[in-house]
Amino acid sequence: MHTSGDLRHAEAVRLDAVSKTYGRGDSQVAALRGLTMSFADGTFTAVMGPSGSGKSTFLHCAAGLVQPTSGTVTVGGTDLAGLDDTQLTKLRRDRIGFIFQSFNLLPALTVLQNITLPLQLAGQRPDKTLIRTVVQRVGLGERLGHLPSQLSGGQQQRVAIARALVTRPAVVFADEPTGALDTRTAASVLGLLRESVDTARQTLVMVTHDPVAASHADRVVFLADGAFAGELHRPTPDAAAARMTRLGAWEDDTHRPQGAPQASGGRY
Ligand SMILES: Nc1ncnc2c1ncn2[C@@H]1O[C@H](COP(=O)(O)OP(=O)(O)OP(=O)(O)O)[C@@H](O)[C@H]1O
């Protein structure tokens, strides 16, 4: 039987009534509106929703990169609001990996140096076998001595993914990690992310527009206008695409995946 302590521990990340408002006065934007959500240890969740629905803001709040206007975020049972800057930096370094849309690589460091930087910052000895596995899996074995400027966008994203995995953080947040990758590389990267959940019990929360990428997750949660708009367990690409269509996500065609149904007439 679970005690309440066990249950709390089984939640890798929890958001309670989280709101985030940007700007003031007339230019005020409510990006998140009282979001309550929980992510269990060792699970893979995809977050989907129309453009501007608050997905990146949610991810940044959950990872302690942005402070919510109100509400509570807990990571591994620790309330982030109770931490000072140094404690928050340490918690992020020790427990959280983040894969940004924009890669955030250091231009003067080689691929290998970028990948192992978090280990150095944390004073950890590199696990050479793990580094080799991660590097091979993301297909960067031949590029370890290159600088980010010598890589394509897709290759830079793979460096960012490898960097987020080598410390084996308890929670990995990923913002469109496969957006810049071709189908085959994307499938391999998603396989690697899935494996990190299944074998290392890492918790993965991934924002994506791609129903195929989302189908690698255990669950998809949908956001619309900064609020929870439903979820799917064991999602198929078709089911995820149909939900996105119902949310009007592809009315402007910006992120419509090939074969996704038209939104017109499909909103209910
Ligand atoms: N730094 C900011 N300052 C002001 N408004 C912001 C800021 N960041 C986001 N917003 C606004 O908050 C809302 C949610 O943005 P967010 O980037 O979280 O959405 P998203 O679902 O990730 O969008 P996309 O799919 O287009 O990346 C949008 O209306 C956006 O314009």
UniProtKB/TrEMBL annotation:
It holds the Pfam family ABC_tran. GO terms for molecular function: ATP binding. InterPro entries: AAA+_ATPase (IPR003593), ABC_transporter-like_ATP-bd (IPR003439), ABC_transporter-like_CS (IPR017871), ABC_transpr_LolD-like (IPR015854), MacB-like_ATP-bd (IPR017911), P-loop_NTPase (IPR027417). Residues 249-268 are annotated as: Disordered. It comes from the Bacteria. Keywords: ATP-binding, Nucleotide-binding, Transport. Residues 13-250 form the ABC transporter domain. This is ABC transporter ATP-binding protein.
